[in-house]
Amino acid sequence: MAEEGHEQRRRLVLVAAPFQGHINPLLQLSAVLHSKGFSITIVHTQFNSPDPSNHPGFNFLFLQDGLSDHDIASLDLTAIVLVLNDKCQLPFQECLAKLVKEQETRGDQIACVIYDELSYFSEATAHNLKLPSIIFRTSNANTFLARSVLIEMYVLGRIPLADPLSQKAVPEHPPLRQRDLPISSFGPMKNFFKLLGNARDVRRSSAIVYNTMDCLEGSSLAKLQQHCHVPIFAIGPIHKIVPAPSCSLLEEDTNCMSWLDRQAPSSVIYVSPGSLASMNETDILEMAWGLANSKQPFLWVVRPGSVHGSERAESLPEGFREITGEKGRVVKWAPQREVLAHNAVGGFWSHCGWNSLLESISEGVPMICRPSFGDQKVTARYVSQVWRVGLHLEDELERGEIESVITRLMVDKEGDEMRQRAMDLKAKAELCIRTGGSSYNSINKLVELIKSF
């Protein structure tokens, strides 16, 4: 689309990674930078592409990504990312070179390229075209440090672990145990560490941006900065800075909001295992009866295809809906930010993806942590042991344990104390993005850096 008005804005090119947990924060970052006076072009693969009509203030360019149906059907996320970085290099080179010429014709210029750490193919192209580049990490500082420890362990031959569920401490990174290390469950180990190494490499980029906060990760951010030769900007929680429409890859059931309106304050446990997690039928059976037996109102997201061998409704146990009645609501997908902001929600059963954690803390909602893989395990450990705003539900799911942990969070004094700590973090997060706050200042410094290019 054409820019409104005659005033020229310097253009930023932001390169996304095609996963729910990566697209949203990149679009939120784009909205923040657009509010600071920059024009925005989003570069995205055809795979999992967002709808441009939801973001009329941005231009969108879509790359031929070379993914086969077999690649996508494999659900091997590591392999998909490696293929994308291999196949997108040339299309991006052509796309960006054309965009540079178009901007020059208009007497304008591209200020820099900002790329998701998983779209690291972008850096070489930016460098070849003499454009500065900035890395955007949608995970957090603690996870980055944990990945670095993991790479060192792999080089020393200590990976794979003899016991992936070991309770042994990781001395290089307390409070993690070996079972909390962000090891991938997708594909061969060598591919995973190839991806980790590529994503970690700063190359010739000029800065790194994290969607995190000093009040959560101040010491880890300081440690990272000590060992990094480029500035690090912690600017989160981005979703609270400038209103930006959600880019959901699944259709959101907004009818659940009217159901929440009928519930008592802080009474509902919101259950959402995430956009990539999958369960077996035993898991969903135990979850169902654990929720029912807790007698607590619940809003439960059961994503189509998330239960092995089943689509959705038939995966719920016989009699479950009749027993729970109006006390429970099951949906395919929910508008999560709005749900967590609703005063009826008093707890969040989460996979502990970083975006979900930020959204939960930003609303003062404590958590039940049920990580599925990778970075989520690191975050879950920090939620339960460091920030102490959640309970870690580990090992096999069992209805009695589920009922117990829901009661602890939603009814017992222990849960009230976690809720208060979550509210304290909410207040600190709000201070971060207010005038003079750490994230507010980091955004301004980032803008100054970009304008200096």
From TrEMBL:
<protein>
    <recommendedName>
        <fullName>UDP-glucose iridoid glucosyltransferase-like</fullName>
    </recommendedName>
</protein>
<dbReference type="Pfam" id="PF00201">
    <property type="entry name" value="UDPGT"/>
</dbReference>
<dbReference type="GO" id="GO:0080043">
    <property type="term" value="F:quercetin 3-O-glucosyltransferase activity"/>
</dbReference>
<dbReference type="InterPro" id="IPR002213">
    <property type="entry name" value="UDP_glucos_trans"/>
</dbReference>
<comment type="similarity">
    <text>Belongs to the UDP-glycosyltransferase family.</text>
</comment>
<keyword id="KW-0808">Transferase</keyword>
<dbReference type="GO" id="GO:0080044">
    <property type="term" value="F:quercetin 7-O-glucosyltransferase activity"/>
</dbReference>
